Amino acid sequence: MLAQQNRFHGRNSIRRIFARGTTLRGRYMMIRFAPHNPKYPSRVAVVVSKKVFKSAVKRNRIRRRVYNIVRHSISEQILTADVVFTIFSGDVLMLPQEELVAEITGLIERTFRPHAKLPIKT
Question: What's the start-to-end Cα distance of the chain, in Å?
Answer without folding.
Answer: 32
